Amino acid sequence: METSSLVTDNLLEVRDLVVEFTTEKGTIQAVKHVNFSLAKGETIGIVGESGSGKSVTSLSIMRLIQEPVGKIASGEIIFDSPKMGKVDLLSLSKDEMQELRGNDIAMIFQEPMTSLNPVYTCGNQVMEAILLHQQVSVEEAKKRTLALFDRVKLPRVKKIFNAYPHELSGGQKQRVMIAMALSCNPSLLIADEPTTALDVTVQEAILDIVQDLRYDEETSVIFITHDLGVVAEISDHVMVMYKGETVEKGDVWDIFNEPQHPYTKGLLACRPRLDFKMKVLATVNDFMEVDEEGKLIEKENNKYKSVGEALLLNFETEDEIKDRTKDLMMRPAILEVNNLKKYFPLKKNWLSRHREYVKAVDDVSFKVYPGVTLGLVGESGCGKTTLGRLLLRLLEPTSGEVTFQGENILTLKGNEMRRLRKDMQIIFQDPYSSLNPRIAIGEAIMEPMRLFKVHKNDKERKNRVVELLETVSLQADHFNRYPHEFSGGQRQRICIARALALDPKFVVCDESVSALDVSVQAQVLNLLNELKEKFHFTYIFISHDLSVVKFMADRMIVMNKGKIEEMGFAEDIYNYPQKAYTKNLIKAIPKGDLEDVRKAQLRRKLEKEKRMQAKM
Amino acid sequence: MLSFIAKRFFSGFMIIVGVVIVVFFLFFALPGDPVSMMVGQRTDDITREAIRKELGLDQSLPAQLYLYFRDLSPVSIHKDTPQEQQKYDYTSLLCFGESVLVLKVPYLRRSFQTNRKVSEIIGEKLILTVILALAAMFFATIVGISLGVMAALRQNTFWDHFIVTNSVVGISTPSFVAASLVSLFFGYMLGPYLGLNGIGSLFVTGIDGRELHLENLILPAFTLGIRPLAIIVQLTRSSMLEVLSQDYIRTAKAKGLSYYKVIFKHALKNALNPVITAISGWLASLLAGAFFVERIFDYKGLGYETIQAVYNLDLPIVIGATLIVASFFVVVNIIVDLLYALVDPRVRLR
Amino acid sequence: MKLRNDKILWTISFLLVSVGLIRWSGWSTSQISLTNSYLPPFQHHLYWLGTDRLGRDVSAMLLSGYETTILISLPIMLLAAGIGIVLGGLAGYFQKVRIYLLAFLLKVIVVGCLLWEIYITIEAASLGNASIYGWLFICLLGLIWAMIHFLQRKWEKLSFWAFYLPVDQLFIRLTELLSSVPRLVLILCLATLLRPSYFNFGFVVLITYWIPAARLMRAEVLRIKQQYYIEAAKANWLQDFYILWKHALPNALPTIRISFVFGLASLIILESTLSFLGVGLPPETVSWGKMIAQNYQDGQHWWLTFFPVLGLLLVIGSLHYLADYWQEGGRKWW
């Protein structure tokens, strides 16, 4: 394998990689002629939305593409292995590849929940990797495993060593996964969306571990993510992918400072910002369009010339905000919540009578004013979703009061409740299960109208549905289609249309954009804001993502462990957080602005020098 | 874990009690008249009365239910008389006055035909049927899991299609059809060459008393195993395919484990859980399936005896067999649940 | 199995239906003619599949066996699946139901009497001595039930003592209990007790055959309940029964129909097994099981056993095939 092309200093070089998948509709190229290289000790971030081929690229490096459905059609992946020298991974035999996997190249996956084998203890699974690649005794392997657990900052390592995966939290599982990946000191670590399923504070901790690894072991990292903020924090280089193609790659500073490709510009501009308030989010479609040949081109005479311009044009000054929020709270509250509690009984021990509870919502009181969007933010398990359900009485509270337009909804019965229902709607998180797969979307939107006898006959209702579909930028001829024919963003629009069918006064959005890609998310958020202007209703916007909540909300509640940590105007909470919890939460969010990029670069440089000196 | 076991045993016990009640109501409370069914055309009033008294049909329903439970319970209170002692054959534990707290073998009443105790008859025959069922299950499990794994690993190849198609045929064949065909083909036509008999029991009473004929187990066990074999093949295959697409298998591969280690250490242990459940479900219905196989192969086990009793309208034996088979099912289920908890740590939480 | 496609599906359904149609069109030649006894198959232009000892046409016997099989199994299985869907769906959806004790007890008593009366009346009717009074009594009981139901709404006192009935737990225990007694054994037992008749057979079979469908329905409803569209429907305060009917049932049916087909296959096996043993069904029934039982030891006249066995395997095999097809390909909808 000593061809001239191999003579480079890079640890990894991917050349002209093409991966194909066979589906019912024919062969699809999931990765189209991708090239990149990675030097020792560097980190490359691969950014893209779902279907961009970023995960497939990483799996092909490990040669873990599911055959025979997927197949690496052509290309070279040259890896500088400490033992074998420079080799093309794609031409290695299966045995040689097994030798490399887990030893020289290790991988962390997106789903910590399902990536560990449920029937073996965590310690056992990490030990397995050590015993496989290193000639050590079982005791030695156990000792190393415990040391690794220590290194990834797991608490009570001995207990976790003997614990089964289902007994750990998501963050802990991901740490075990990292420990497993680190077990043999790999020279290349591939992290495939390792923090997507985790809370921001946990994400911060995990990113720190990965950073440390780089300083200590000079490990190269391929970090795959959809979150530009994370990339800004962690990588030296960035590669942006779109539908299997590389649209742009380069130094992290260059990408963030001067993005060349319209798609990159769109991605950078469409993220809700934490540092200032925006009126409207720019979307990817403001920057680019697809020409007749299916190629991406920059939109001619587009709205914004650059990312900076897109931000500047939509920037809302503090005076404007003050102006807008000044008299919002003068009117009587539309919804008032007093001492609301919801306790879920834990499974009680059948021997003892003693009952224990999970306090999902613990003594919560607040008011919602008409026209003021209330944001509800908190980490997973803080009770925000339960609270949303309680407000609509989808769950019966343990105690407390919910007063909607002057009526306590918790004491209402059958028909009275139905009358109120018309005015309260909810939009759920998962656009895939929010629509009944057996009911055409037109019917689905029409169903509540028919039951509440809104409009005179089906013909009028149908006209109204078409109107609604057009309001959410769908077409009239979508009326008779079934949910599976739509993409996630489109489905969420349908759900929004359904929620609007009864002209509600009050809408709860429960993580409504969490399952969507950033570019789609921006469109849906803009749509929600437009609708608010048009129909004059009040939102409660629930999300784990502080930046999204801050974009949407006028007032904001931070929840933690079922209680309200902090409540107030969104700008105030962000700029002057009072509680430690809120401060931590805000600190943990990767901002992804230029200043952060520079800081991160500087920090890396310093750390490197520090360690160099320490070595000498 | 301990409370899990205790819970499981308690619920098993409750189910057996429930089964007794269900059986009781089916037999004693339905509008059919067991007595005239049994004595058929004979209209001898004295015989009728005797049977009525033996079955306790002259008493009210709740009283009958009480008597029934008292007969079945291993610990019960009886009058301390020689007749009672002879009827129940009990060991007394505690005496108070005329009554006595006793320990006994559950009294399943007596056969109408031979007047022997039902528990004795069943005890004698049950072991033969259990051997047959276990042998069949053993055969089906070993072969079924291997073929299932093989089909899953060679998905969409000739062997996969071949195994799956054959398993559909296997599932579609009623056991009496399979039994007749196997008995005809292997027993009669090829019997002389293979040294197998078309019919015959595990024990044959010859000149020197009872002789063990192990070869008589082969054909019935094979026949009985066909259906569970086919089902296990399909279950293992689909369960294996599902597990192989899980994330943790990818993790195991990313660790650099060899193909066989991934399959046998990481995939198989997860894939076998649903198969174990299915096997437990089948073991009990195998006892039932054994009934026909036994009849065709003339294998004198519980099934043979029960079907004979059905023809003779010998009600106590039939009820006894029902209860035994049901209890067997419950016990097997408990054992399997415990096994399941051992294999899969997630189950223990429930 | 590469051949899986809709053509095969249609072929199977076509065969199942058309054979029945031929039978019902009145083609039957099962007359006794001793001159034609033991004709081998494919040699006589009238008796394609040969004749038996009495010279009866095997093909005609096969067809009437098929008719018996379908006429017995299909209605029972439909009823069983219906019961299963209702009970499983209710148990899965409601979990716990608020019960007003007094009204509930009254209703239970009335319904108990009602079921009992229906059983007795139908059995009498199936024996040909139906009385008008039985039916009148059933109507009367129905009226009483409706009266209690109506009173309960109007008259507060009937609903003074309320508690939660754990419907789902009861359901689980009941199915566990009933499935502990293997079906075949249960049926054998009842065969010793009840007169062999189609009605009794159906009754006994129903006791256990509703369970698989019910369990599956419960599991499906539990799964579907997790979906947000159910919650969206609840958010609109739609009636529970409307949600069950409009949203849960259509999404559960693809799975239920699989269990239905499996149930049908196992019912056909059961029926043929029982007629093979000559237990539980009326002795005059013509069926494949009986044909096999009468001839399986007769190696010389193989066609008498071969064709009914082939018929059984084909019917059961195609049902399994259909179920497999649905299991793997039927989920195209989502």
Helix content of chain C: over 70%
> Averaging pLDDT over every residue of chain C, what do you get?
78
Q: What's the CATH topology label of the largest domain in chain C?
A: MetI-like fold
CATH superfamily of the largest domain in chain C: MetI-like
Structural class of chain C: mainly alpha
Number of domains of chain C: 2
N-end to C-end Cα span of chain B: 10 Å
Strand content of chain B: 5-15%
Tally of alpha and pi helices of chain B: 14
Count the E strands of chain C: 2
CATH topology of the domain at 118-347 in chain B: MetI-like fold
Question: What percentage of the residues of chain C does DSSP assign to strands (E)?
Answer: under 5%
Distance between the termini of chain C: 23 Å
What is the quaternary state of this protein?
heterotrimer
Supply the number of helical segments of chain C. 11
Shape of chain B: globular
- Main sheet attributes: strand count, strand direction, barrel closure of chain C: 2 strands, antiparallel
According to CATH, the homologous superfamily of the domain at 118-347 in chain B is MetI-like
The neighbouring-strand order within the major sheet of chain C is: 1-2
* Overall CATH class of the domain at 118-347 in chain B: Mainly Alpha
Average pLDDT score of chain B: 79
Verbal overview:
The complex is a heterotrimer of chains A (616), B (350) and C (334). By secondary structure, chain A is an alpha/beta fold. With 350 residues, chain B is mostly helical. In chain B, the strands form two sheets. Chain B has a three-stranded antiparallel β-sheet with strand order 1-3-2, with no helix packed on it. Chain C has 334 residues and is mainly α. Chain C has two domains: 43-96 and 166-334, MetI-like (MetI-like fold); 97-165. In chain C, 71% of the residues lie in helices and 2% in strands. A two-stranded antiparallel sheet of chain C has the order 1-2. Chain C is globular. The two termini of chain C are 23 Å apart. Classes of the chains: A alpha/beta (616), B mainly alpha (350), C mainly alpha (334). The interface between A and B is medium-sized, with 33 and 24 residues.
Based on the model shown, name its key terms.
heterotrimer; A: 616 residues; alpha/beta; six-stranded mixed β-sheet; 23 helices; 38% helix; 23% strand; globular; disordered N terminus; C: 334 residues; mainly alpha; MetI-like fold; 2 domains; two-stranded antiparallel ribbon; 11 helices; 71% helix; disordered C terminus
